[in-house]
Design brief:
The complex is a heterodimer of chains A (115) and B (112). With 115 residues, chain A is mainly beta. In chain A, 0% of the residues lie in helices and 57% in strands. In chain A, a hairpin with a 2-residue loop joins β7 and β8. In chain B, strands 2, 5, 6, 10, 11 and 12 form a six-stranded mixed beta sheet that branches. In chain B, strands 3-9-8-7 form a four-stranded antiparallel beta sheet, with no helix packed on it. In chain B, strands 1-4 form a two-stranded antiparallel ribbon. The chains are: A mainly beta (115), B mainly beta (112). At the A-B interface, β5, β9 and β10 of A face β5, β6 and β10 of B.
Chain lengths: 115, 112
């Protein structure tokens, strides 16, 4: 069965520090991958999505970036965090083909606090 | 433009009551998918159901049921005989051309 791992679960970082959040998917190949941010009490904002290695689409211009160095690995990064980057970050994957096509499956999330 | 509206920000019910969560969507796509997700306090979003735009049959799964009506662009979710474990934030989502659009969520509180 497929599983998605996301870490760390919580993170407290000072303003101006770098960020690296990692997400990996097991049990499938060539998935679509997504990064979302959820501000406190708000809905989900799509940040990046990827349909293949090295293929990243950005939805919101900001100081975050994403990379997909391997088929099932998706990394969210920042060189210098801002206070406004605080939030709950969720990684998700969806299969390209099959009955479950287009269903997104989410990781457990990372709660980031920028102080 | 694509849009998903969940007008109910928060709903409180007493255990065993029925509750309906509303979802209204906008899209120009002729083929699209609608979803409901549950976000318990732990934070992880749990997939509940997917519906494609060509299938307007209502669906029932245990205490959960979904009413999809293209005529009113609605995809409502009903929990029958609610339980405390149903307390969560519920998101409705739309997938059209290439991206997912989520509603702002409805927080359901089921009181014992």
């Amino acid at each position: 069965s497929q599983t998605i791992h996301q870490w760390p679960a919580t993170l407290v970082q000072p303003v101006g520090s770098p960020l690296s959040l990692e997400c990996t998917v097991e049990g499938t190949s060539n998935p679509n991958l997504y990064w979302y941010r959820q501000a406190a009490g708000r809905g989900l904002q799509l940040l990046f999505y990827s349909v293949g290695i090295g293929q990243i689409s950005s939805e919101v211009p900001q100081n975050l970036s994403a990379s997909r160095p391997q088929d099932r690995q998706f990394i969210l990064s920042s060189k210098k965090l801002l206070l406004s980057d605080s939030g709950f970050y969720l990684c998700a994957w969806s299969p390209r083909l099959g009955l479950a096509k287009n269903i997104q499956y989410f990781g457990a999330g990372t709660r980031l606090s920028v102080l | 433009a694509q849009k998903v509206t969940q007008a109910q920000t928060e709903i409180s019910v007493v255990e065993k009551e029925d509750v309906t969560l509303d979802c209204v969507y906008e899209t120009r796509d002729t083929t699209y998918y609608l979803f409901w997700y549950k976000q318990p306090p732990s934070g992880e979003l749990v997939f509940l159901i997917r519906r494609n735009s060509f299938d307007e049959q209502n669906e029932i799964s245990g205490r959960y049921s979904w009413n999809f009506q293209k005529s009113t662009s609605s995809f409502n979710f009903t929990i029958t005989a609610s339980q405390v474990v149903d307390s969560a934030v519920y998101f409705c989502a739309l997938f059209g051309t290439y991206k997912y659009i989520f509603g702002t969520g409805t927080r359901l509180k089921v009181l014992a």
